[in-house]
Amino acid sequence: MRDVLLDLVVGSECVGCARPGRMLCPRCLHALPSVPRICWPQPTPPGLVTPWSVADYDGAVRAMVVGHKDRGQFTFRRVLGGLLAVSVRAAMADDDGAVVLVPAPSRPGSSRRRGYDPMGALVRTAAARLRAEGRDVTAASLLVSNRRVVDQAGLSAGERSHNLSGSMSCPSPGLARLARRRARARVVICDDVLTTGSTAREAQRALGAVGLGPVALATVAATRRRIPDQTGGSLLSRGPRG
Ligand SMILES: [Zn+2]
Question: Which H or E run includes 56?
Fold first, then answer.
């Protein structure tokens, strides 16, 4: 709340073009991507459900994701939730049956610090947007991160996968049963950024462990992997692997 007030009182500039005024000016708002696409990470974690995304993790979108998640810029919730809704809509295709959106859990201590769950908020926003279109969509925060995992930045795909393996669970069997009982409800995992797919794959595993089979992954943005992941690390100048 304080951050929102600060933005309003102190004034701000557009995260897209730095023009003073709104944090996302009308021009940059209208320039946001709106065409969903399937973005398989390279390499793709085995068994990963179809990953949908709308934007490249770049420019204004990246600034909004980081601002919303780490800097308390809650004002971006609606725009990012809208982008996520585009992704979910694509993942659902023409099927207008019941859908349960499950946010990827944040690391313990990282996001709920301010008593605000950024990803949960985006998923609820996307679900509300889709319900307004007459679709049967609910949001359910079924997953938690059980232990501290190392910050993912700078880790290779393999390291991320190892880092996250077994880190998530569904602590509410009742909730999972509820989700299962919904007639033909399909589960879509939601995240803000698709990088290696490791987070989504772990979420998939944890949901599978309580009998839920996610059918797709919907994200706001996907990173472009400019450096091919080399298991031997030849292109990435890292120290010896432990
Ligand atoms: Zn702008």
Answer: strand 55-56
